[in-house]
Amino acid sequence: MRLYCEHCGYPQKTCICSHINTVDTSLEIVIIQHEKEALHAKNTARLVSLCIPSTRIIPANDVIAMQSLSKHCLPQHSVLIYPSEHSTPIEDVSADERSKLSKLILIDGSWKQAFGLVKQNPWLAKLRAFHFNSAPASNYAIRHTTLSNALSTLEATAYALLRLDQSDISGLHEAQRALQDKWQGPMSHRRHL
Fold first, then answer.
1. 150: Cβ–Cβ under 8 A, 6 or more apart, which residues?
2. Burial of 5 (0-12, 13-18, 19+ CB in 10 A)
3. In the chain, pLDDT over 90 holds for what percent of residues?
């Protein structure tokens, strides 16, 4: 029987607790997690919640939680990180606009899953949305993707916090590095960066 760390939730052999550093932000972080993504041991939403303990991870198939979230997302203070034809480059957001934001919403899932969640929840499409024009390349090598500009949920959160809140995001990157360094899956499952 595999033993798991009670704090970080990873197997004790790959415990990353010594690499978790709290990241301070004035923004409320909400991650809507696709039900299939929740099953992946390598998903990075858990890392975000370890570094930013106030993070809320909401299962996308939890109808009551999603309805509650929709009622508490005021358009003038909430923003969705999601590229669309109406989204704005996060790099162009003014200091005045940033000062009005209090809630940052991300979707944890593949692009196809994220697209489906936005279609299933039309209220998400009504929120102001930001996309990335100049995000750094992904350093997450233990998940495969065919998209050159794809970021892990942690990397997307980190970049959004850097641009919107000028937060010190080093703790997030350290947690992701630790997970990758301790990951015991086969080398063939790693992508080459």
1. 111, 138
2. middle
3. 74
Output the pLDDT for position 140.
Answer: 80
Q: Residue 53: inside a domain, yes or no?
A: yes
Q: Identify whether 140 is part of a domain.
A: yes
* 2 occurs within a structural domain: no
pLDDT at 183 over 90: no
CA 155, CA 137: separation in Å to the nearest integer? 9
Nearest to 177 by CA among 133, 151, 141: 141
Question: In whole angstroms, what is the distance from residue 193 CA to residue 80 CA?
Answer: 28
Q: Would you say the C-alpha torsion 63, 32, 75, 23 has a positive or negative sign?
A: positive
Bridge-based pairing state of the strands 78-81 and 88-89: unpaired
**Local structure of 93: helix, strand or coil:** coil
- Give the list of residues 6+ apart from residue 166 with CB closer than 8 angstroms, or none: none
The domain tally of the chain equals 1
**Residue at 191 is within a domain:** no
Q: Domain of residue 169: give its range.
A: 23-88+96-182
pTM of whole model > 0.85? yes
Helices (H), the chain: 35-38, 45-51, 63-71, 95-100, 111-120, 122-125, 153-165, 170-182
